[in-house]
Amino acid sequence: MKDLLRTADLSRADVELLLNTAADFAANPLRSSTALANKSVAIYMTKPSTRTRLASETAVAHLGGTPIFIRGDELQLGRGETIADTARIISGYCDALIIRTFAQSDVDELGANASVPVINGLTDDDHPTQLLADWVTIRENFGADIAGRKFVYLGDGNNMAHAWLTMGAIMGAHVVAATPTGAWAPDAKVVAQANAIAATTGATIEVTNDPEAAAKDASVLYTDVWMSMGDPESERIEKTKALSPFAVSQQLMDLTAKDSIFMHCLPAHREEEVATSVIDGPKSVIWREAFHRRTTIQALLYHLTRGELQGR
Ligand code: CP
Ligand code: NVA
What is the pLDDT of residues 252-297, one digit of tens each? Predict the structure, then answer.
């Protein structure tokens, strides 16, 4: 496996390796401090980022490499140079590329034309690196035995919902996406793919529009912003109305299992998709989850640049 273009690229064995290495990097960030010595990693983003950018830059630094951050408007790509040509040029200077942008097809094209690893740092369709941090955090709270546990995402059927269902399928988990029907439901193709993966791993994939039923006895309630980067502002009022039953209220949190946790990829909008009492309450693990963005990107860079991931 050369690239991580989408969550579904990962095998269960790859995820296990990455989670273990991330735990090692959490304990000792500098344990492989020369792995990328004399190497550079380009980080190219056409959308804003706090966590993914800083986690990526610090991960490269901890591996002894040089991160090169490039804003979307800084490359000739924005002036008509092709993605394929850009991929070849970056491959000549850098040892990996982390990209955040809109179209998944652009990331796929970069991967196909770059000779170095390309990592998806979020597209409109997927957010694979986030899910690695989420699953390290899930492991820290519940251990590896997740039989009988239910992992619930509530909100927009967006990139996060897709990644949640897909990674849950890979991990053999009972995962739920509780979303509105219609325009803000998860992509049917992604759900079908998650079900196909689930058939090989013993996972259960559930898509529902009943937030109370989803929350009942859940081990995790997870949510994301209602307006994602690039979503048309003209949809805000209608979308907010459709999503409001899926807000993680204190009442919804009270329906969950005794040892449940609250998760959020961040950035968050308090009193919109989540109640302040929940996100800042005792069940919230958001800061540890955000911390693991670095440990997991560090693990991913480490293993991908060494050619140690097999893919699914
Ligand atoms: N969760 C996440 O990807 O955050 P940023 O948009 O700040 O990178
Ligand atoms: N769904 C959000 C996730 C942000 C990390 C977005 O794409 O903006």
Answer: 999 999 999 999 999 999 999 999 999 999 999 999 999 999 999 9
The closest-lying atom of ligand 1 relative to the alpha carbon of residue 52 is 8
Residues 152 and 300 placed together within one structural domain of the fold: no
Instruction: Decide if 293 is catalytic.
Output: yes
Ligand 1 atom, smallest distance to 53 CA: 8
Q: Is 187 within a domain?
A: yes
Ligand 2 center–CA 160 separation, angstroms: 7
224 lines ligand 2 (CB under 6 A): yes
CATH number of the domain bearing residue 150: 3.40.50.1370
Q: What is the pLDDT of residues 169-209, one digit of tens each?
A: 999 999 999 999 999 999 999 999 999 999 999 999 999 99
Q: Which domain holds residue 195?
A: 130-287
DSSP per-residue string spanning the chain: ---B-SGGG--HHHHHHHHHHHHHHHH-TTTTTTTTTT-EEEEEESS--SHHHHHHHHHHHHTT-EEEEEEGGGSGGGGT--HHHHHHHHHHH-SEEEEE-S-HHHHHHHHHH-SS-EEE---SS--HHHHHHHHHHHHHHH-S--TT-EEEEES--SHHHHHHHHHHHHTT-EEEEE--SGGGSPPHHHHHHHHHHHHHHT-EEEEES-HHHHHTT-SEEEE--SS-TT--GGGHHHHHHHHGGGSB-HHHHTTS-TT-EEEE-S---BTTTB-HHHHTSTTB-HHHHHHHHHHHHHHHHHHHHTT-----
Total domains in the chain come to: 2
